[in-house]
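Example: DUF2325 domain-containing protein.
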Amino acid sequence: MCDHDAKKPLARFFPPDGEPASRTSSSRRQRLWELPANTHCPVIGVCLPLGVLRKLVNKGVRGQALADDYEIHVGAVAECATRNRISNLLQDALDQRYALVLLRFRDARSGDAVMLMWRQAIAQGDVAGAFWAALTHPRSDFLVQDTVLREMHMIQHQAGATTRIDHARYLELQEENAALGAELAQAQQRHVRTLAEKARELEQVQAQLMNARAELVARDSKFAFLQADMAELSASVPELEARTRLKQKLDEAAQRLGARDAQLAQLRQQLAASTRQLDALQAARPVDVPVCEEDAAEAIAAAQLVDKTLLCVGGRSASVASYRCMTEEAGARFAHHDGGQEHGADLLDANLAAADLVICQTGCISHNAYWRVKEHCKRTGKQCVFVENPSSTSFSRGLRQIAILAA
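Written out as structure tokens, the predicted fold is:
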């Protein structure tokens, strides 16, 4: 209640002197200024939001009221005592705002019917419009108004207590969310660091493997030359004394070849272990980070994919950059179609016509796109590899497979 009503009770147990306990039959609703004075404060406070009330007061005074929300409320309540420009504006605004509720309350033919509809509105949690309709209803006598006013007063107390409890819980949830956010950020940082370390280890192992492959090629070439020289000497001079020495050199080369093979097998095992660790980290990380698979690029380059156009249909959108990186490392041109998520069927047909090779990720495309790819490749004879898992590792294996087919 407002300060100007501090000396007045919230509701009276008996009607004031000269006022009947029940109104005579009438079809006209009571106006705002005709209601008891102790109803004006709850009507203005409950039924009109502060922003709407301020606009109505500004319109009533034909300017901007230089007052805070409390003063606006108190002034509006004071104006409701008589019929004037502001009380007329408030009456019209309330009738327009709750027109549907007023229309529903018209079905009430007695004070008991009004109270029944008021109690139903309380149960449904929509009391503002029902409060205005019940107070101004033609069948609302003093007892109905007094009862509605009492119950609204208690509803306001209960709503205030609930709001305070909800606010305290909201503050607790904010603190809990901030703590969980900090823990998540730390976990993500540790994950990124671990992933970076494994990536560096993988790069080192791949560099060692490349060096070992280069040495293997040089050794194989030298061994082939020695075999050719030995065969030529044997054919020209079968009894050459140096044949024994050449055989010894050949045995020594074979021993070195065995040692190199063992070293290469060990490096391959290290590469496979590091690749499995990196795949596990990539599957667990929250965001796909494009990683260039250098070993896949080496395998594709060996399959002579240079200057060929490779079309990838489907796959995760966050992994497209990784697919492109691996494809371009092999010297091929990369094209992508999302398999029907956003790109249309006409664009898919155009991409298939322009592509030399196709990798189709079946787990991320529509049925229509799958059958279009399969039918086109079968009809044109283009090499196509179907991959179920849309990961960077699966795409790398698909590149190796299509490289073998293209060769």
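Confidence is low (pLDDT under 50) at residues 3-15, 17-22, 288-293.
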